[in-house]
Amino acid sequence: MRAADCLPLPAGATAADGASCFVNPLTALGMVETMRAEGHKAIVHTAAASNLGQMLVKICLKDGVPLVNVVRKPDQVALLRDLGAKHVVDTSASAFFEDLTNALVATNATIAFDAIGGGKLGSQILTAMEIAANKNATSYSRYGSTTFKQLYIYGGLDVSPTELARSFGFSWAVGGFLLTPMSAYLKRATGDKYLIDPNKGL
Ligand SMILES: NC(=O)c1ccc[n+]([C@@H]2O[C@H](COP(=O)([O-])OP(=O)(O)OC[C@H]3O[C@@H](n4cnc5c(N)ncnc54)[C@H](OP(=O)(O)O)[C@@H]3O)[C@@H](O)[C@H]2O)c1
User: Fold this and answer.
1) Which of 33, 75, 91, 157 to mutate to test the pocket of ligand 1 (most atoms within 8 A of CB)?
2) Domain count, the chain
3) Which CATH number characterizes residue 71's domain?
């Protein structure tokens, strides 16, 4: 094997430790780095009780980054609250959209990482971001707020079509997000602050 394809593990680490130390942790770190590189101050994350989501909760707590966690069951709310998460909203709750909007008003999150992909959730997040942005507007514009909102789809837990009901103005983007191209992008965007050099490995 090429040395660049190898990752030395600490003595005593098991194969399972090695297998779990790479993709999810670096993707979670990359989300926070992307938030910073693109000028956002807080993050929305879906399917947030996932393995990756639990890592993101810990990283954001450590780095002081406000995080809005979107889950789909009450026991997932409890799991993340036990980790110290402040904002956890449950899509199965009747007040979900109001809870989401309130969390966005509280955090000013304008970037979302969506593991679900299909359905209406990404669109609801952009809409709630737009409502939160307009809370402080001093005038009305038919084109919506000037606050830029970014939705990154990074998983396909729901493989149905992504439905965008464009009720969030014109200052937004939807994109894909994948560990390896994201690492190369961060290298370009942040110079020596990148996480991975795609040519040299870690
Ligand atoms: N783009 C990248 O570079 C990258 C890198 C790493 C991971 N990922 C993606 O990140 C996601 C999380 O990975 P993981 O290993 O942390 O997963 P995981 O631990 O298996 O967790 C998956 C979570 O998603 C929830 N879920 C599944 N289907 C759902 C749906 N249709 N709607 C809402 N929630 C749903 C599950 O909750 P329930 O218990 O309710 O089913 C669970 O909490 C995956 O989609 C994976 O493909 C992407």
Assistant:
1) 157
2) 1
3) 3.40.50.720
Ligand 1 site, residue 157, Cβ cutoff 6 A = yes
Integer Cα distance of 188 and 125 in angstroms:
28
Instruction: Give the global pTM.
Output: 0.93
C-alpha 173 – ligand 1 centre gap (Å): 22
> What is the pLDDT, as a whole number, of residue 202?
40
Contact 48, 56 (CB under 8 A): yes
Quick one: pLDDT band at residue 1, thresholds 50, 70, 90? confident
Give the start-end residues of each E strand in the chain.
43-46, 67-71, 87-90, 111-114, 117-119, 149-153, 158-162, 172-176
pLDDT 10s digits, 93-147: 999 999 999 999 999 999 999 999 999 999 999 999 999 999 988 889 999 999 9
pLDDT at 192: 61
Mutate to test the pocket of ligand 1, among 34, 45, 52, 196 (most ligand atoms within 8 A of CB): 52
186 occurs within a structural domain: yes
- What whole-number distance in Å separates Cα of residue 133 and Cα of residue 110? 9
